[in-house]
Design a protein that fits this description.
The chain is of the alpha+beta class. It is about 35% helix and about 20% strand.
């Protein structure tokens, strides 16, 4: 994109919107030409321009994309929690958008438009830029725009006129905010208001963000209601059971418990089925379906031992995982880079490590024990049956295998942990 200007930052504000758009247009053209601009865009727009330029998008291209088929759009609508809160979004934005000569657009987490509603004339104009149901509006498809850039930045953003990377969008203004599922924090989609550039208003972003938060609050309220209904069904069942048991919803959130301390949430495998299943935080369990969730009974018998083998897979830096192999199958837990470092250190030192020794292994600083203890505590929520403490170690009788990348230099390539950098320089110790 060339050099960035340093004389000033252009912000689109109120009555200065037209002048700001002209300055942005000149700044953008200078950046595309590799020249120094007199002014620069806002930092979030500047970062988006850089991402889009690196992806190879042509600023002169059309915003057209291949539309999803009608049946695929319907499938996605019914597969997302956004469908449940569309009444909230319509009540909060659709009528305002219509009156302001704009349209409301709602996408999924991939930036695919699933719903749109608003001013009929603007809906017609939106066909010219492919802002229609089934279209792709992620940055990788359509360059800098409020939907795609809100997805990339995971934050609300307003994009006006020449802030759009593709020239065909310079006559448009848009404001978008992400919507997250409060049950797990996962981003589920984007809510957006778009319209002709002449309809720009600086308060639009605050409005869109407020309605997105209302949608999240509605999801939370519906979730609490579902938990209460599950609790009403599960409580009488748990009263008749001996031993440890829980009732959880499909996301693992607790509705009722007996015989054990309550937990906020039970980590569940993605494809849970009725029957006997190994849950890393509880051990062997028997799982049965309930209306709106699962009944989980912990098998406390001696025959239900921990996994016999742990496979720490570090072969692919972007897919770090630990596999727990037991008599009835294998369960897999994805790992963050930090947790991969910790498990690698424990695999290297099978005799165990104190918190200070682990801090030295990971940070090169034996005083950072508080951080180490917190991270190991998080690990043990999922791997309690195979991780022991005092000292921290893999449990007795647990076989541990580390799957290394093909080349030692590729072992956790971004890690600066001494236990990892040392392994990169010499033969793998395990």
């Amino acid at each position: 994109m060339g050099q960035k200007g340093s004389a000033g930052v252009v912000r689109v504000i109120g009555q200065e919107a037209d002048r700001a758009a002209r300055l942005l247009h000149r700044a953008r053209e200078a950046r595309l030409a590799g020249e120094r601009a007199a002014v620069a865009p806002r930092a979030e727009i500047d970062a988006s321009w850089d991402r889009v330029a690196r992806s190879g998008i042509d600023p002169g291209q059309s915003p057209e994309s291949e539309l999803l088929r009608a049946e695929e759009i319907e499938h996605r609508r019914h597969s997302t929690v956004l469908g449940e809160v569309m009444p909230v979004l319509r009540a909060g934005l659709a009528s305002i958008a219509d009156a302001a000569q704009q349209i409301m657009v709602v996408t999924d987490a991939e930036g695919r438009v699933l719903w749109r509603q608003g001013n009929s004339a603007v809906m017609h104009r939106a066909h010219d830029i492919c802002l229609e149901e089934g279209a792709a509006w992620a940055e990788a498809a359509t360059g800098t725009n409020a939907i795609g850039t809100a997805l990339a930045a995971r934050a609300p953003i307003q994009v006006h006129s020449a802030e759009h990377f593709i020239r065909a969008l310079h006559n448009w203004t848009c404001a978008a905010a992400p919507v997250r599922d409060p049950r797990d924090g996962r981003l589920v989609g984007i809510v957006d208001i778009s319209g002709p550039a002449t309809t720009f208003h600086p308060a639009t972003l605050a409005l869109v963000d407020s309605v997105a938060r209302l949608a999240e609050a509605e999801i939370r309220t519906r979730h609490l209601g579902a938990i209460e209904r599950l609790r009403a069904v599960a409580a009488p069942i748990l009263c008749r059971l001996e031993g440890r048991a829980l009732a959880v919803d499909s996301h693992g959130w607790l509705a009722a418990v007996t015989g054990m301390p309550p937990v906020d949430r039970l980590p569940l495998p993605k494809s849970l089925r009725p029957g006997r299943v190994w849950l890393p935080s509880l051990g062997m369990c028997r799982v049965e379906p309930l209306p709106g969730g699962w009944l989980v009974q912990v098998a406390d018998g001696a025959a239900e031992g921990p996994p016999r083998r742990v496979v720490l897979d570090l072969s692919r830096p972007r897919a770090l995982a630990v596999h727990l192999v037991g008599p009835l199958g294998t369960s897999t837990q994805r790992l963050s880079p930090r947790h991969a470092e910790l498990l690698y250190a424990l695999a290297v030192h099978r005799e165990g490590r104190t918190a200070s020794e682990l801090a030295q292994d990971i940070f090169g600083d034996g005083t950072r024990t508080v951080t180490v203890r917190a991270e190991v505590s998080r690990l043990r929520r999922h791997l309690a049956e195979v991780l022991a403490h005092r000292p921290y170690r893999f449990g007795d009788g647990v076989e541990v295998e580390v799957v290394h990348p093909e080349h030692p230099a590729d072992l956790l390539p971004r890690s600066k942990a001494p236990v990892v950098t040392g392994a990169r320089r010499g033969p793998a110790p395990c």
